[in-house]
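Appendix B, record 7
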Amino acid sequence: MSTEFITNREIYDKVIQERIPFAEKFVWIGTSDMKDLYVKKKSKMVPFLEILNDLVKKGVEIRVIHAKEPGEAYRSDYDKYPLLIKGMEMLLCPRVHFKIVIVDGKFAYTGSANLTGAGMGSKSDNRRNFENGFITSDKVLVNSIMSQFDEVWMGKHCKKCDRKQFCFEHL
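Structure tokens (predicted):
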């Protein structure tokens, strides 16, 4: 696969189900909105955080950049997975609006879907958002997407940012 346009449920299938659980080195996720979402694991539905917890157990590095605090249900599920406290690095940046998933520097998704049930989650077709994006294993595209994520992660834009008053990292 080089680059493929995907929509709606394909995002869940091709990113959340087929790629993230099989990461070997790292998963980077960028999202403006982050809510509790459930995914299929074997024959049952589990919080997506359980998949990330499983990856942390295998030594996979997890980084998440998000624009606002997650909802109450997410925070409640997060507390069930204490490995995530040290094993999942998180950065809050109120300017983030991109939606990015990078797996092992070899695969990337970028598009409209947030890390929510109706965006990237397993909601039924009648309850999910209309989303689209691209998945790619093209090295040039993956590296470009990684560069944008990394610039935000490393704080490249923080010094000149006019929204510091909304950023918890700088209060």
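Remarks on this record: The mean pLDDT is 93. Residues 66 and 110 are 14 Å apart (CA to CA).
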